[in-house]
């Protein structure tokens, strides 16, 4: 069985972002990423500051039950970029056998065949403020494969820090007009320890993003969200 580097397993908590926002879920956060986003809120998955535990699918499932007991029926796999780990295939299989729903978060830069079996796939291409470059051909392939899955959901989620990011998101939206589109306010203060301080600031940013999109017909079919977990718990890890 191929092993998976795991940074954290936590929950039950709520999914704070994207298409399944509010969903009660467990999280499995994998280590390693092909990207280095300037504003990454999980840089500990790739910057060497925290060490991954290398685990096989069976021990990840065991850990999920140890932490979540009978209090979950949904698991979210995030990173890092989970798509770089072929071992996730067996994890998905084991979870499906247990009747557990699965979701994944990835930037859409590396295709993994196990994406086909995930109930909710969130593709989160990175805008200019991240300093990453989108490989459009790879993204085309992703969207094409995901669109052809019966009875499973996917969406695009783009983190927005400024107007240039919003133009990038518009380009993505035009390229994939049938993909449900979520815009998410970027967290530009990853060092604030006080959840209350951050909350006020991020709600202001959320208002800014709403005002930018309301008078623009390109955004007539979009969902605009804050990061709920950041509003609730600030920059705290493992919630
Ligand atoms: N790499 C994935 C993404 O970009 C998940 C990590 S985001 C903290 O969506």
UniProtKB/TrEMBL annotation:
Catalysis: reaction(s): 6-carboxy-5,6,7,8-tetrahydropterin + H(+) = 7-carboxy-7-carbaguanine + NH4(+)
Binding site residues for [4Fe-4S] cluster: 33, 37, 40
Chain residues that bind Mg(2+): 42
Domain Radical SAM core: 20-235
Cofactor binding, note field: Binds 1 S-adenosyl-L-methionine per subunit. Binds 1 [4Fe-4S] cluster. The cluster is coordinated with 3 cysteines and an exchangeable S-adenosyl-L-methionine.
Record-annotated membrane-spanning stretches: none
Source superkingdom: Bacteria
Family matches, as InterPro entries: 7-CO-7-deazaguanine_synth-like, Aldolase_TIM, Deazaguanine_synth, rSAM, rSAM_sf
Alphabetized Pfam families for the sequence: Radical_SAM
Example of a GO biological process term: tRNA queuosine(34) biosynthetic process
UniProt cofactor(s): Mg(2+); S-adenosyl-L-methionine; [4Fe-4S] cluster
Catalytic EC class: lyase
Gene Ontology MF, one: S-adenosyl-L-methionine binding
Gene3D superfamilies, A to Z: Aldolase class I
Keyword Ribonucleoprotein assigned: no
UniProt keyword Cytoplasm present: no
Enzyme Commission number(s) of this protein: 4.3.99.3
Oligomeric form and interacting partners: Homodimer.
Name of the protein in question: 7-carboxy-7-deazaguanine synthase
Organism encoding this protein: Sinobaca qinghaiensis
Gene transcribed to yield this protein: queE
